Amino acid sequence: MSNSLKKSILILALAIVYFFLFRNAYWGINVLLYSLVLIGTTYFLSPEEWSSPSVKVTALGTILSAITVVWQHSALAFWAHSISFLLFIGFVQQRELRFFWYALLLGLRNIFAAPFDLIKHFAQSMMGIIRLNLSIRWFGITALPIILAVLFFTLYHQANALFTSFVLNIWTSTFLAFFRNFSFYNLFFLVVGLFLATSTLSSSAFAKTLAGQEDLSDIKRVRKGNRFASMLGLKTEYQTAIMSFGMLNTLLLMVNIFDLPLFWLDYSSKSFVELKNFVHQGTYILMVSILLAMAIILYFFRKNLNFFPDNKMLKALAIAWCVQNAWLAFTVGFRNMQYIWHTGLAYKRIGVIFFLTLTIFGLWTMGKKIKEKKSIPLLFHWNAWAAYALLISSSFIHWDIIITKYNLNHASKEPLDLDFLIYDVSDKNLYLLYDHQKEIAQELGISRKEVKEKMAYKKRKFLSKQKRKDWRAWNWIDCKNQLHLGQ
After folding, report:
1. CB neighbours of residue 366 within 10 Å
2. Which of 148, 338, 362, 454 is spaced 20 to 30 Å from 134 by Cα?
3. Going by C-beta distance under 8 Å and a sequence separation of 6 or more, which residues neighbour residue 177?
4. What's this model's pTM, rounded to 2 decimal places?
């Protein structure tokens, strides 16, 4: 059997699996099942591609993120899985790819180019079938296995009631369901399944183009520019950089010194509005200033200044600038933690922690780039993998549960924001709210009946959604809520 024909059969099979698992279904355990089938198929079809560490890492990331979809069923888990899936497509298409962003670009390209790749593969497969049907050897190889399979299928179908029931269920829920209730809605899911399978299994000429681009440009080290470039112009740029980093370091040192009293400030004496203004006014501006600081370093160290003779002073000032910005990030984090401590936990405050974590890592890699003359693409490569690792690891955490538990159990300046926990936080926290009705009523000074009435909206919405779900959308957190609600 030709490789093209084998791919086409597997693409059709994966499309049917996708249709069966996702038609009229929410995300749940179906995501994990499809991921395992798809990744297993790629290994069966092209085991040599798995020699690449990037393929193994992204395959593991795709499976782990699919597990978090089943376990957490959060928006973060969905995003982590989608990005992992795109990266896996990119790396499995071209195992020689090293650059994170090239793999992501290749994954996106294959998704959008899937219709054209699909037509090409089926055209090649039909030509293969015509050639194979002319071969007596092909008929001799396939005839006996097919006859035996049909014979034993008939025997098992007649002898085993459970096997018969299973086959009928598969037949009625897939093939008959599609043709009996044919609609563009059904066709849509089948086509999406075809596109996803094609984007993963089909080979792309663009993959070789990207791999060739990596070979042409060494992403590890920055390269010298024109050796005949004007030294006078480079010296002027060097002097500009020295003056810039000198002035900026002085300014930032003053800011950091003025921020030192933050660590001894009595936050408990401030009102909620004062604390909110104090944190919000400075935090976002300082975050933007850190990003601009990183952009300045990238600008000056983009090429020939890395090789300027006796540039130790410039490197020292740039590294000092990185260290000072890392300290600035730490003070921003301190403000954010004080705000959480005194007002409660929320999504944006967690987002600030993520941002600062990646920022400090980025500043560390910036210092490494300056000292070791690494290239800007490699810098982005390092930071992209760090962001990916943080995304996958954080998707394992029950953030909705952590927010709810923290706000219910931690005393703050303001009364408990019950509306936030009911309307803004997802229904993952439903069982916690029902378990803490008494404590909520005491803190807000209202009756348990009023608390229950407020939560009734969330409960109705949750139960209404559950009625539209079947086994394919099963996930642990919904199951836990249903058990607590006695459903």
Report:
1. 25
2. 148
3. 23, 186
4. 0.80
The Cα–Cα gap between 219 and 107 comes to: 20
Residue 189, both tokens:
């899911």
pLDDT tens string 278-333: 666 667 777 788 888 888 888 888 777 777 777 888 889 999 989 999 998 888 88
Closest CA to 223 of 375, 377, 382: 375
Distance, CA of 366 to chain centre: 24
The CB-based long-range contact list for 222-227 (8 Å cut-off, 24+ gap) reads: 222/301, 222/302, 222/303, 222/306, 222/373, 222/374, 222/375, 222/376, 223/303, 223/375, 224/303, 224/304, 224/307, 225/303, 225/304
Residue 374 phi, psi (nearest 5): -80, 160
Distance CA 405, CA 57 (A): 33
> Minimal CA–CA distance to 93: which of 249, 207, 236, 195?
207
Measure Cα distances from 479 to 41, 79, 141, 486 in Å.
30, 22, 49, 10
Condensed to tens digits (0 to 9), the pLDDT of residues 376-391 reads: 888 888 999 999 999 9
CB-CB contact of 117 with 198 (8 Å): yes
Burial of 249 per CB tally in 10 Å (0-12, 13-18, 19+): middle
Q: Integer distance in angstroms from the first to the last C-alpha of the chain?
A: 52
Q: Residue 54's closest CA among 238, 277, 211?
A: 211
Q: Pull the structure tokens for residue 223.
A: 């390269």
Q: Which two tokens stand for residue 117?
A: 């790749």
Q: What are residue 221's DSSP bridge partners?
A: 374
Nearest to 339 by CA among 257, 277, 399: 277
- Please state, in angstroms and rounded to a whole number, the distance separating the CA atoms of residues 263 and 126: 72
